[in-house]
Amino acid sequence: MAYEGILLGMGNPLLDISAVVDDEFLQKYDLQLNNAILAEDKHLSMYDELSSKYNVEYIAGGATQNSIRVAQWMLQIPGATSYMGSIGKDKYGEEMKKNSKLAGVNVHYYEDESAPTGTCAVCVVGGERSLIANLSAANCYKFEHLKRPENWALVEKAKYFYIAGFFLTVSPDSIQLVAEHAAATNKVFSMNLSAPFICEFFKDAQEKVLPYMDFVFGNETEARTFSKVHGWETDDVEQIALKISQWPKASGTHKRITVITQGADPVVVAEDGKVKKFPVIRLPKEKLVDTNGAGDAFVGGFLSQLVQEKPVEDCVKAGNYAANVVIQRSGCTYPEKPDFN
């Protein structure tokens, strides 16, 4: 099977500025653990404070880019993955390009002249993380960039697509174009619920593209928010996963499978009107470094097997393996080679 360019991701490339902070810092900026938000004016001084007061690490991030990097790492096949998104023409942008090339991902960034490369503050307390994204250049992705022949060629070549829900805030037109292409050509299109605020405030954009999703990923908090927003009156993650999987589809080629992670609790998979649960790999508390990137890593591991046409059980196993590796390290990083079979 030809793997070159088989998986394409699109999203918001962000440089993670990651640090272990204290509860006081969280309170000062009104932050909650296990949450992801967009930066408001009250958060803007936080980035400098992080860099000056705490021991920070800079890691090429952004949800989709994390998942694509992890899939690439799991596959160990050069150029199997591609990625598009918008960065600025600055040192963070250069850092991002260098990072991605080292990871073996074929990146086609749109480079915005006017805005700095997007950043994401990753505030870690007790292994749990709070994410505050300042999109900047990531917010400037242009639909026209996708339609350039050299970029559309990546779409034509790919057989699997993955886009985090965060990209709905930036370029829903780009998502729609790729989703319709996937439906018309029997390719596999997948997205992530990504954050409670996406389910709440970008409900219409999310609903418009939902019929095209063959795989829907998310965590328990996002699933419950999705249920609440749609008036389903249930907090039961298994029921919610089922209902999402049964949402009408734009194309009948592939059924929809919903995959919901629940931290240390089993992964819930809904397909064909049934729910299966898969236990995660147990990790002693003292080995947990931080949960940032755990969900992204899970998706990356899952996709690495999906593109090889492995059964869903194997995909979940690989997802759990990748997440387990990443939570034992700072940020969405991994050793040189995976040890997965």
Point out poorly predicted stretches: none
Find the structural class using helix and strand composition: alpha/beta
Number of strands: 14
Instruction: Specify the helix fraction band.
Output: 25-40%
Q: Terminal Cα separation, in Å?
A: 19 Å
Largest sheet: 9 strands, mixed
Q: Note the total helix count.
A: 13
Q: Describe the global form.
A: globular
What is the radius of gyration?
A: 18 Å
Oligomer: single chain
On the 0 to 100 scale, the average pLDDT is 95
The proportion of residues in beta strands is 15-25%
Looking across the biggest beta sheet, what order are the strands in? 6-5-1-9-10-11-12-13-14
Order of helices and strands: EEHEHEHEHEEEHHEHEHHEHHEEEHH
Outline the structure in words.
37% of the residues lie in helices and 24% in strands. The protein has helices at 23-28, 46-53, 63-75, 91-103, 143-147, 149-157, 172-184, 196-201, 203-209, 220-229, 237-245, 294-306, 312-326, and strands spanning 7-10, 14-20, 35-38, 57-61, 81-88, 106-112, 119-125, 128-134, 160-164, 188-192, 215-219, 257-262, 265-271, 274-278. The strands form 2 sheets. The chain has a 9-stranded mixed sheet, sandwiched between helices. This is Adenosine kinase. It catalyses: adenosine + ATP = AMP + ADP + H(+). InterPro entries: Adenokinase (IPR001805), Carboh/pur_kinase_PfkB_CS (IPR002173), PfkB_dom (IPR011611), Ribokinase-like (IPR029056).
Give a nutshell description of this structure.
This protein is an alpha/beta fold and 341 residues long.
